[in-house]
Amino acid sequence: MTDSARPFIPGLPDRSVLYISVVTHPTHPLHGVMRGRVHPAPDLDLARFVQGGGAGLRRYFAEHVVDGPTAAPPKDLRGYRGVVIGCSLHYFNPDRAPLAPWQQDLVRFVRRVIVDEKLPYFGCCGGASLAHIALGGALSKNPKGPGIDPSAEGSIVIRTTEITLTDEGRSDPLFASFPPSFGMHTVASDYVKDLAPGCRALAHAADVPNQAIAYGDRVRLLPGLHPEMSRELLQEVAGALIHTGKFGTNPSDSDGMMGAIARITATPHANELLLANFLSAMCAGPASSSHDDGSHDDGSRRDASHHDGSHQAGPSRRIAPRQLASHAEPNAARRPS
C-alpha cells in the first residue's frame, strides 16, 4: 500500500499530532472490558477515530498513544502540530466526584497546550471537559428530559442527537461540508451550561446547548459528542455498562439503555469528516520553530523541510471531501456508523 493511496493532508507532517487517551483509569469498573473488547492497546480509542475517518489518518499521529490516566504527557511539545484528547468514562464534574490527581494533571497540561503553547487542540467528551475546565469553565449535570431517565437530572444521554450549527458554526472549518443540521452520537451525563470565558458556541441541540465550542482560531471542543462512535460500538459499550451495573457512579437502566441504543442512527458526516477537517484546517500549514523543530521526546524525527514559518502566519488549509475520496485506501477498514 503506497502513501498516495492514503488520505493526504497538505502541509501536515507525519507523526506530528499528539493523541492522549483518557478512557479509563485502571481502577474504573469498566477498565478491563474497555481494554479487552472496545479500546485495546496500542492505539486505544484513537483507533476508532482512524477507523471512522480513514486508515490513512493514522500517519499524522505520533506513533505512541499516551495513556493519560497512567502516563504523563510529554513535557517537550516541540515538533507537535496539535493535540487531540478523546472520550472518557470518568466524570470531570466536581459536583459528582473530586477530580483525581491524574485528571488535575491533565487539566494543567491542557491549559499549557492551549494558553501557553497555543497549539491546536481538539477535545471530544472527556477531552472537551478537560479543556473547558482548563479555560476556567465548569460542567453541569444534564438537565431533566434528554437522558434515559427523563425525570432525573444528570441522567446519561445515549442517542443520536440532532445538531444545529450556529451562524459561526456554519462557516467554521471544523464543519466544512456539513449541512446546517445533522446527527451525531452522544454519550454524556454532564454538559456545558455556561461557556468558559472566551469560548463561543458553534452548535446546539434543541434540549442541550453548547454541543460544539470554539476557543480562538484552533481549539474545538465537543463536550458530549462522539464522532468516533458507531451504533455497533455503542452496543458494545452498553453491554459492558449493563454487565457491570454502572457508568462511573451512575447506575445503568438496562431497558432504557438498550432502548436508546435501538434508536441510534448513522452519522456519516461526523464519522468521516470531523477529524480530517480539524487536522487540515487547524494543524496543517506553517508552524512556529518553537513547536516544530522536527523532533519529539518520544524519539520520532520528521523532515525539516516541512518546518517553514510562523505558527500563526498564513491561512489554514482543509482537506476537501473529494480529496478524501480520491486519496482513500480502496480496501481500508471503515467502521459502519
Task: Tell me about the largest β-sheet.
Answer: 9 strands, mixed
The averaged pLDDT comes out at: 81
Give the structural class: alpha/beta
How would you name the oligomeric state of the polypeptide chains in this document? single chain
CATH architecture: 3-Layer(aba) Sandwich
Beta percentage is 15-25%
CATH class: Alpha Beta
Give the SSE string.
EHHEEHEHEEHEEEEEHEEHHH
At CATH level 3, the topology is Rossmann fold
Strand line-up across the major sheet: 2-1-3-4-11-10-9-6-7
Q: How many discrete structural domains?
A: 1
Overall, the morphology is: globular
- Outline the low-pLDDT stretches: 1-5, 292-337
- The gyration radius over C-alpha positions equals 19 Å
- Summed up, the helix count is 9
State the CATH superfamily name: Class I glutamine amidotransferase (GATase) domain
Structural overview:
- There is one protein chain.
- This protein has helices at 31-38, 46-53, 101-116, 126-134, 167-171, 231-244, 254-262, 268-283, 321-327, and strands at 17-21, 66-67, 82-85, 121-124, 140-141, 157-165, 181-188, 190-191, 199-204, 212-215, 219-222, 246-247, 250-251.
- Helix 3 links the parallel strand 3 and strand 4 (121-124).
- Mean pLDDT is 81; it is low at 1-5 and 292-337.
- The strands form 3 sheets. The chain has a 9-stranded mixed sheet with strand order 2-1-3-4-11-10-9-6-7, sandwiched between helices.
- It has 9 helices and 13 strands.
- It starts with 16 loop residues before the first strand and ends in a 10-residue tail after the last helix.
- With 337 residues, it is of the alpha/beta class.
- It has one domain (3-327): Rossmann fold (3-Layer(aba) Sandwich), CATH 3.40.50.
